[in-house]
């Protein structure tokens, strides 16, 4: 499935672009993104701020691929990043997203970012679920 910010011109629409995701299991998904020159820092590697923004984006694209599209209206409470390597412009960026635990109001997730088979970054996040429409 393709995933993009539904409002044209927003930060995620212009900075991230369209990603592609698939559900791999009930609580696991893969999200892919083509990298482009606008994702680079001045050294030509993928910018850490871009990687954090993509990680946040991938959480919600992953939840949608897991069959939870209503959580597009959820909000990130916290997000931590561990930068493990240097990403390159050109190769696809792959996020492996996992929903670790869910409570009545919160979801706890982790993800890893890879290019080819190299680990670029890892992240954990807490998301406050969107209210259920009644």
Q: Can I get a quick summary?
A:
The chain has helices at 11-15, 48-65; strands spanning 2-3, 19-25, 28-33, 75-83, 93-102, 106-115, 118-128. With 134 residues, it is an alpha+beta fold.
Write the layout of secondary structure elements.
Blueprint: E1 2-3, H1 11-15, E2 19-25, E3 28-33, H2 48-65, E4 75-83, E5 93-102, E6 106-115, E7 118-128
Antiparallel strand pairs: 1-2, 2-3, 3-5, 4-7, 5-6, 6-7
Question: How does this model look, in words?
Answer:
The protein is an alpha+beta fold. It has helices spanning 11-15, 48-65; strands at 2-3, 19-25, 28-33, 75-83, 93-102, 106-115, 118-128. Strand 6 (106-115) and strand 7 (118-128) form a beta hairpin.
Outline: globular
Please indicate the percent range of residues in DSSP E strands (runs of 2 or more). Answer: 35-45%
Distance between the termini: 27 Å
Uncertain ranges: none
Structural class: alpha+beta
> What is the chain-wise order of helices and strands?
EHEEHEEEE
Mean pLDDT: 92
Estimated radius of gyration: 14 Å
Count of helices? 2
In this structure, how is the largest beta sheet organized?
A: 7 strands, antiparallel
Strands in their spatial order, largest beta sheet: 1-2-3-5-6-7-4
Q: Helix amount, in percent? A: 10-25%
Write down how many β-strands occur, each being a DSSP E stretch of 2 or more residues: 7
């Amino acid at each position: 499935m393709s995933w993009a910010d539904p409002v044209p011109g927003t930060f995620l629409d212009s900075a991230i672009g369209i990603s592609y995701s698939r559900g791999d299991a009930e609580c696991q998904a893969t999200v892919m993104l083509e990298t482009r020159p606008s994702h680079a820092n001045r050294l030509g590697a993928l910018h850490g701020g871009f990687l954090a923004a993509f990680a946040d984006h991938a959480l919600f694209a992953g939840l949608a691929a897991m069959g939870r599209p209503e959580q597009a209206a959820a909000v990130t409470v916290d997000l931590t990043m561990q930068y493990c390597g240097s990403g390159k412009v050109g190769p696809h960026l792959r996020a492996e997203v996992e929903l670790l635990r869910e409570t009545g109001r919160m979801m706890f997730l982790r993800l890893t970012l890879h290019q080819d088979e190299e680990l670029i970054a890892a992240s954990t996040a807490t998301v406050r679920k969107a209210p259920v429409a009644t």
